Amino acid sequence: MNYLQEPIVKVDNLLTLQTNRSQRRFALMIGVILSLISMLSAPFARVQLLELQAYQPAIFSTVICFELITAYVLYSQFQVSRSPSVLFLFAGYLFSGGMSFMYLLTFPGLIVPGGMFHASPQTAPWLYLLWHMGFAVSIGLFLFMETKYKHVQLTSDQARKISLCTLAAVIAVVSGFTFITTYWQEWLPILLIKGKLTPLFIYGFGLFVVVTTLITLVWLYRMTRGSTVMSSWLCVALLASMLDVAVILYGGGRFSVGWYVAKWNTFVCANIVLSGMIYEFSKMYLNMTTLYQKNSEQNKIIEKMLESSQEAIVMCNQDGQVVFANRRFEQMFDRPLISGQQLADYCKKMKSSYGTLGELIQGYLEHRKPPFRERVTIVTSKWETRYYECYVNPIEKEEGGLLHGHLFAFGDRTDEERRANYDELTGLPNRRFLGERLLKTMERVKNKTGTFSVFFMDLDGFKQVNDKLGHTMGDRLLQEVAVILQMCVEDRGLCARWAGDEFIVLLEEIENNEQLAEVANRIILSIQELRFIDGFEINVTASIGVAIYPEDGSEGKMLLQHADQAMYEAKLRGKNRCCFYSASIAEAAASTTSE
C-alpha cells in the first residue's frame, strides 16, 4: 500500500477515546440484557404470532436511519483521523443500511404483494444473510487494518479519493447482491418454504453467519478489551447481530416469537453504536462547555492583568496576526491595532537600528531571525520622536513544545533614552550612543565586507557668536545646526553631538567618495546659508573631515581621530570645506605631534 504515509500529528477521536470502568460496565450490562431477552424467548421462539404489517416498516425505517447516521458519523471521524481502518467501519454501516433498505423493499407484502424488483420468496432471506455476513466481515476488515496499519494516516487528497471509491464500491455491492437475489433467483438454493426456514438456512448458511459473527466478536474483544468507546459498543453491536440470526434460526420461520425478538435485536444492533457515540459527544460538549467557562474566567483575569500593565502588549497567532492588544497599545502609539491585522504591517514605520521594526518582525516570523529585544523610534502625529523597547517571546504549548503564538511587548523608554543617549540641548545622540552605534555598524559591515564613513564637523565662527550675542544665541545656533544635519543626512546615517560646537555624522549607506562629498558639501552650503536666527544675524561656516572604514581605520576610536585630523586640515585650507583623510594628513599630524 504505497499510497499510505506515517501521520504527522496524533489525532484523537471517538475511536481512540479511552473508556473508564463504569462505561465498560454499562456496555457489558446492555450485552447481558440482550442475551437474557434472547434466552428467555427461546422456549417460546417457535410460537406463531399474528402478522403485524406495521411492525417491520416501523423497525426498519429507524434501523436504516440509525445505520446511515452512524455511517456519516464514522465518516466524520475518518476525516479527522484519516485512518484506513475507520473507512472499513464506515463502509460496514453504509452497507448495512443499504442492505436493510433492500430487504425492506423486497419483503413480500410490505410494499407490493411479492416484493419490489421482481423479488421472489427467496430474495429477502438471502439479503438478510448477506446483510449480517457483510456486517461481520466489515468489522473483521477493520480489525485487520487496525492491526497492520494502525499508525498510518492518509493525506487529505488520498482520503478524498479513497472515500469516493469506497462509496462507489458499497453501492455496487448492494446493487449487485440485490440484482443476483432477484433476477437470478432460480439458480439460488431455497432458504424459505411457506414462511418456514429450510435446513439449509438453519444448519448451513445461517449457522455459518452466526459462527463468523461470534469469531469476529471474540477477535474484537481480545484485541481491544473494550478499552475505547468505539470498541466497547462495537462488541455490543456484534453481539446483537449474532443474537439476531441465532434467534431467527431457533424460531424456524417468519412471524414467530423468535422472529419478532430477532427484529428487536436488529434494532439494537443498528442504534447501539450511534447511541454510544451520541452519549460521548454529549459528554465532550459538556466538558468543553465547562472548560470554556473556566478558560473564560481565567482569560478575563489575564486580560485585566494585561490591561493594568504599563507596557503595550500584543498577542499574535503563529502567522503574526493580532489576537489581542491591550488599551495601553493604542494610548502609546496613538492609533488602534485591530484584531486580525498583521503586526508587521502596523510596525513598518517604526525604525530599528537597521531597517524597520516591521521588517524585523517579519524576519522573526519567517524564522530568519531569533526572538529579539530591540530599541525602536517613531515620530508621533505631533512630530515628536519617541523611543520604545520591543521584545518578543514565542508562546509554546507545554506538551511537545509546539508553537502556539507570539507575545510582543512595548515599553516606553523615551525619558530613559533621552537622559542616557541624547544631548539635552540639541536632541541629537550623544557620545555614548554614537560609540555603541559605531560598534554595531562595524560588526555589521565586517560580516558583509561592507564600508561606512565618519564626518567630524566643527563650526567656524562659533566663538564669535557666543562672544557677541551670548551663550543663549550660541545654544540656539547649535539647535539649528542639529536640524540642518538631520535634514541633509535623512535616513542614510546618524547625526550626533560630540562636544561644544563639534558634531559627528555616521553615514552607513554609501557607494563612493563622490556621494560622501555631495553630502558633506550639502551640509556646508546649508550652514553657510544660515544667516538669521530669531532676528539676529549669524555668520558661521563648517569644516568637515571625512574618514572611511576600513582603509582609514579598523577601530572606531581611530576613525574618529583620523576624521578629526582631516577636519583640521580643512580649517588649514581655508575653512568652509570638507577634506578626506589621506597619508599626507597622517604625516602632517605625526610631525605636529612630534614637535
From TrEMBL:
Occurrences of domain GGDEF (ranges): 450-583
Lineage: superkingdom: Bacteria
Keyword Transmembrane helix listed: yes
EC number: 2.7.7.65
Keywords: Membrane, Nucleotidyltransferase, Transferase, Transmembrane, Transmembrane helix
Entry-linked Pfam families: GGDEF, MASE4, PAS_4
SUPFAM superfamilies the record matches: Nucleotide cyclase, PYP-like sensor domain (PAS domain)
Primary enzyme class: transferase
GO molecular function, one term: diguanylate cyclase activity
Transmembrane residue ranges: 26-45, 57-75, 87-106, 126-144, 164-184, 200-221, 233-251, 257-279
Protein name per Swiss-Prot or TrEMBL: Diguanylate cyclase domain-containing protein
